[in-house]
UniProtKB/TrEMBL annotation:
Protein name listed in UniProt: 5-carboxy-2-hydroxymuconate semialdehyde dehydrogenase
Alphabetical list of Gene3D superfamilies matching this protein: Aldehyde Dehydrogenase, Chain A, domain 1 (3.40.605.10), Aldehyde Dehydrogenase, Chain A, domain 2 (3.40.309.10)
Gene: hpcC
Keyword Oxidoreductase: yes
Keyword Oxidoreductase appears in the UniProt entry: yes
Enzyme active site: E248
UniProt record similarity statement: Belongs to the aldehyde dehydrogenase family.
Domain Aldehyde dehydrogenase: start-end pairs: 18-475
Gene Ontology molecular function, alphabetical: oxidoreductase activity, acting on the aldehyde or oxo group of donors, NAD or NADP as acceptor
UniProt keywords, alphabetically: NAD, Oxidoreductase
Length: 479
């Protein structure tokens, strides 16, 4: 099938008619094509967004809210179609897409349908000066939203929903690796009555389509989720043009396990936080540090549980670990296992490709557990973003904290303990944007979401996202 760009509410071919192949990771076959949109296509999308802006930015909050809620409802109605499309594009189990990705995409639209009706601005009375200040928050104009392949519709909608709720018009680009549900979202938006041009979706490579969005002189803000290197490049283009930037980047998240935790809950959750979505979630805990007194027990129990994980075709209901997203990514993940071994680490389980009968050319890899001696080895310092975790013991709280922070990234951390003092100390001192204690990936959409250090700049979620997508203007009135 040929995917088309969604511009001004219509599906259109790219102007220069250049196309890219789209692969199904579960069998390695090409199953469609997407446009590799060029600057002229992005310009067309920009013009559509710009012409929709005056009307959309003046549309009442009640109407915007109603349309967003309708999009949410339609996503829910089409859950099976969207889950299957997501799985075919990405390799993730259909069951996971049905339980997590698609419901969450609907929740993003529903959340911002509600949030925009509760979003206020500030007022300050300048006591003694006979003046009052109030702040207007206006939409920015045309904004760019660029998202990655790991949670395609979920992360795409996490940007689009607040941007349009706040009254902006969008030129958006999903990952070229997973374009399908973004394409389907175009149909849904039309059906929901979103006015033409409010959301425009252009497909293509980062270096062509993405670059054209980021460097467009009149696209005034960029909301980006993806790799740290790409984020740095985008910042280098957008910052001198004084664009507003939100960057959600890579991670190398620590999972700190103390002997006093609720062991069984920790164990089951740690299997999930290591291998959910084939370990391709920016929040996965890829560095597991375990208190020495329970290290040997944890090692044995964890490996035993990981061994039981069912690797298989994404549409098989029994599958817990599906295919990796692409051949290139599979090769990258495998190369890190080799690097770890060369650096003296020990593979406790996994490390090998899996042949799924009938799908021999799919990109399947065993969930992999590696024991490391040193936190400074490459596998503990560089983002692998696959079904690979490392484990390492620690003796004291101070050592655990130092190990957790000894990395350039700072997205999230998980702490397993029942000690309140330790919980508070770690919550304060971990250099991450998110800390989970005795849980993982429990999400409340009102909370600020994002990372410190090389994991990003700015926060998404709740009113933070609505603040990002609006320009504050202070008015001072003297009386
Ligand atoms: P990527 O950086 O390769 O690509 C992300 C998006 O940016 C894609 O749409 C891509 O086409 C586009 N892009 C690439 N080069 C560009 C350029 N020069 N200009 C504009 N756009 C460009 O990342 P990926 O491989 O798709 O995704 C995996 C990465 O995303 C991992 O590092 C992961 O940690 C990160 N991620 C972060 C979060 C978070 O919330 N912090 C969430 C999910 C994924």
């Amino acid at each position: 099938m040929k995917i088309q760009n969604y511009i001004k509410g219509e599906f259109v071919n790219p102007i220069a008619a250049t196309w890219l192949d789209n692969y199904n990771p579960s069998n390695g076959e090409i199953y469609g094509q997407i446009p590799n949109s060029q600057q002229a296509d992005v310009e067309l999308a920009y013009q559509a967004a710009q012409s929709a802006f005056p009307s959309w930015s003046n549309t009442s909050l009640a109407t915007r809210s109603k349309i967003l809620a309708k999009i949410a409802a339609l996503i829910k109605d089409k859950i099976q179609l969207l889950a299957e499309a997501e799985s075919k594009d990405n390799g993730k189990p259909v069951s996971l897409a049905k339980e997590v990705d698609i419901p969450r995409a609907a929740a993003n639209f529903q959340f911002f349908a509600n949030a925009i009706t509760q979003f206020g601005s500030e007022a300050h009375e300048s006591v003694g000066l006979n003046a009052v200040n109030f702040t207007l928050r206006h939409p920015i104009g045309v904004v760019g939203c660029i998202s990655p392949w790991n949670l395609p519709l979920y992360l795409f909608s996490w940007k689009i929903a607040p941007a349009i709720a706040a009254g902006n018009c969008i030129v958006a680009k999903p990952s070229e690796v997973t374009p399908m549900t973004a394409y389907l979202l175009g149909e849904i938006c039309t059906e929901a009555g979103l006015p033409k041009g409010v959301l425009n979706i252009v497909h293509g490579l980062g270096s062509t389509t993405g670059q054209a969005i980021v460097s467009h002189p009149n696209i005034k803000a960029i909301s980006f989720t993806g790799g740290t290197e790409t984020g740095a490049h985008i910042a280098s283009v957008a910052a001198p043009m004084f664009k507003k930037l939100s960057l959600e980047l890579g991670g190398k998240n620590p999972n700190l396990i103390f002997a006093d935790c609720d062991y069984e809950t920790m164990l089951a959750t740690t299997v999930r936080s290591s291998f959910a979505n084939q370990g391709q979630i920016c929040l996965c805990g890829s560095r597991i540090f375990v208190e020495e007194t329970i290290y040997e027990k944890f090692k044995k129990d964890f490996v035993q549980k990981v061994r039981q994980l069912q690797v298989g075709h994404p549409s098989d209901a029994a599958t817990q670990v599906g295919a990796l997203v692409s051949k290139a990514h599979l090769e990258k993940v495998k190369s890190y296992i080799t690097i770890a071994e060369e650096e003296g680490a020990k593979v406790l389980y996994g490390g090998l490709e899996v042949t799924v009968p009938g799908y021999e050319n799919g990109y399947y890899l065993q969930p992999t557990v590696i024991e490391v001696q040193d936190n400074l080895c490459r596998i503990n310092q560089e983002e692998v973003f696959g079904p690979v975790v490392t484990i390492m013991p620690f003796k004291t709280d101070a050592e655990a904290l130092a190990l957790a922070n000894e990395v350039k990234y700072g997205l999230s951390a998980t702490v397993w303990t029942n000690n309140l003092n330790r919980t508070m100390q770690f919550s304060k001192q971990l250099q991450t944007g998110i800390v989970w204690v005795n849980t993982w990936m429990l999400r409340d959409l009102r909370t600020p979401f994002g990372g410190q250090k090389a994991s990003g700049v700015g926060r998404e979620g709740g009113f933070e996202a609505l603040r990002f997508f609006t320009e504050p203007k202070n008015i001072c009135i003297k009386y």
